[in-house]
Design goal:
The structure holds 2 protein chains of 2 kinds. Chain A is an all-alpha fold. Chain A has helices at 2-29, 35-38, 45-54, 61-73, 87-122, 127-141, 144-158, 171-200, 203-211, 215-245, 247-252, 258-267, 271-299. Chain A folds into 2 domains: 2-73, no CATH class; 87-299, Orthogonal Bundle (MetI-like fold). Chain A is 77% helix and 0% strand. The longest helix of chain A is centred in the middle third of the chain and has 36 residues, at 87-122. By secondary structure, chain B is an alpha/beta fold. In chain B, helix 4 packs parallel to helix 7 (159-171). In chain B, 44% of the residues are buried. Classes of the chains: A mainly alpha, B alpha/beta. Chain A binds chain B through residues 1, 202-204, 206-215, 217, 222, 225-226, 299-302, and chain B through 59-61, 86, 89-95, 98-99, 101, 103, 106-113, 120-121, 124-125, 153, 155, 166, 169, 294-295.
Chain lengths: 305, 542
Amino acid sequence: MMFGYIGRRAYHSTISVIGLLTLVFFLTRLTGDPSALYLPLDSSIEAREAFARLNGLDQPIHMQFLHYLQNLLSLDFGQSLRQNRSAIEVALEAFPATLKLAAIAIILSVILAVIVGALAAARPGSLFDRVAGLVSLAGASTPDFWIAIVGILVFAVGLGMLPTSGTGTTLHWIMPITVLMLRPFGLLVQVVRGTMISALSAPYIKTAHAKGMKRRRIIFGHALRNSLLPVITVAGDLTTGLINGAVVVETIFGWPGIGKLMIDSIIQRDFAVVQSTILVTAIAIFIVNIAIDLLYVALDPRIRY
Amino acid sequence: MTGTDTSILRIDSLTVDFLSEGDPVRAVDDVSFHVCPGETLVILGESGSGKSVSTGTVMGLIDCPPGDIVAGSLVFDGTDLSRLDEEGRRALNGRRIAMIFQDPLAYLNPVYTVGRQIAEVFESHGGSVARDEVVQLMQRVGIPEPEKRIDHYPHQFSGGQRQRVMIAMAIALKPDILIADEPTTALDVSVQAQILELLCDLQRETGMALIMITHDLEVAAAMADRIIVMNGGKVVESGKAEEVFTNPTHAYTRRLMAAVPHGGSGERKSRPQPDGDVLLQVESLSKHYMLTSGFFSPKREFKAVDDVSFVLRRGETLGIVGESGSGKSSIARMLLRLNDPTSGRALFAGEDIFQLEGKALNGFRRRVQMVFQDPFGSMNPRMNVRAIISEPLLIHRDILPRARWNDRVAELLELVGLKAEHADRHPHQFSGGQRQRIAIARALASDPELIVCDEAVSALDVSIQMQVIELLSELRQRLGLSYLFITHDLPIVREFADRVLVMQNGRVVEQNETEALFASPRHPYTKTLLSAVPKAKWMATG
């Protein structure tokens, strides 16, 4: 049953990934001719033609596409023009940096948001609830690039406490993670608070009170478990956003992740690498979605696939 | 209060306000009652009478605010409940005072196994519990195969079994008082009888006091030693059950008792047997569903409706009775072309309903209308009454020119006993009974010949039920309507239907003229159904 379900999902996802790759293939080729970037300005026409032939760019575009599809079948994703090695290797090399950043950011936001949201929902209208509401709204609505730049100005340039960009020490992680967390944390606090308030007014909470259960166990045992489903949906959505959308944060902080790689290779017309980064993120998003579906089953016994 | 007060719970002059946006609303007004160990007190009243609020304060389940105990005292075994702090309250709830509720599916947590939820009662009061003990408890409340069922989730149980699980939680620590808030309202009549019997048995075993809240007079009569009747937040009558039932003194109680359909003799006979032509002829109607289940279990066929045939004459009312899952609503849905049948024919005025397409289908829909069970869910809350009632006119454009719609809406509203000026209001401004009248007006808007009522009065209070039934029979006479009246409520069908069809597991087990069926049921299932209607306690015991 369950494997059948995953198989069906994989099948459907494959179709959409192929559609996506087709679209990306043609769109990237609209950005211009790579030989203009990779050869010296004064190179001869012969040299340009040789470069095009070498990289298959002299063929008509539909032939290039067929060739690309053929290679895909044998798991050949093309060569990086810039680095002169397998494009997928370049993409896979950059991916762990993004994945670590995204995983830490999302896990921390979920944990913090569940605690803050649940406490806010336990006493709606209290001072804590109002402060949490304000902070989460600010977090959800402030642009991340602005926070990132202000962060660099204050903590790196001004106070000199944190490095401006790059990787290496633990300190390098602090600003990218904090900036990445703001939006998910803000949104999740609001979702947790809302679903907790409705869960707390559910009839089975009355039963728990009638049983004489402790208040904290009612909130964290009965209400929270039931309000987690919508939270997981939103968190999953935000995770996929972080996996492919850390572009701005990675660029600002010089983080060698897949977002930065994508931007760089688009600018450098390194077509094979653009396509590979998109393939890698698409597969990662597929895996995240499957994981969310499986979490649903684990959390709610009424759901079966 | 005398020196020989044996009561375990005594409530004196309890007054509870609810703070809404404007003035506080008095939900409970100067209510006093007491209950002694081993005794059953029934609090009888219709919706909004304050009966659940007064017991909710005993459990501390009324949120304060918005609720506020303005005056009065609640003394349980020498402790003033209104002065308890959270911890003191927690120590009593579930251990010495327990409660069960109306809708066990909503009141059980869907994501935990029933075993865990039962064990929580023990754990909340400082004990741990062996799995065996929970199994025994489930066995005691009559859940078959408890060793296996302990690991199942609430949605895997039937309604009656869920209520048994609730009862198992309530009696786990042998409480002094069990409060049962409409415990059988959501259940079928035969299941209701079993649950009531279980409660009586448990009471005999443990000697606990039982406070039972109900709107159902039969249930009240079956259970009560003493009764208090509440109306508008006040106690209007109290006393020994037999006295209150046989000799009600307060006007409200008398009205309530009079509202109970007694069926049988009298006025019903005055109605001539309809002998019109055949309006609806149903032949071998079946609806089967394929169930896909489990890992390795094969597909199974579920027969929701199985080879059902009947005839409805013009002007006749055919009652279809059966418990939940017996297939009665499936029949209604197929006859209205909301679902397609697996096989069978249904001739409406000579035409096969299931062959109709396009314009002919639309014409048919105009002639057959439906009144649903839930007057709250079956109307769009954002539409006003005028828009709701004139919607059929919007769909069937040939009925009436738009200029005359307003007059027609006013006419229909008056026909169902409402006022023309109600047309500009929205559904939430009406009570349940009034909403059902609006639903009837909507059904009448397209001048139908047949109205299908699916549990049309089940959600209403007893006294309102009878008013709606009276309206329906008046309309039957004035407009020559025919009804297909689907219900689980036997007294009502006895009052209202000309003929009755009894259904069980998708099949018709018996059909007959109403009086003949009630006087001499032939099929064993019909007999069980009829005998499941609760009998008064004082008659049973002495």
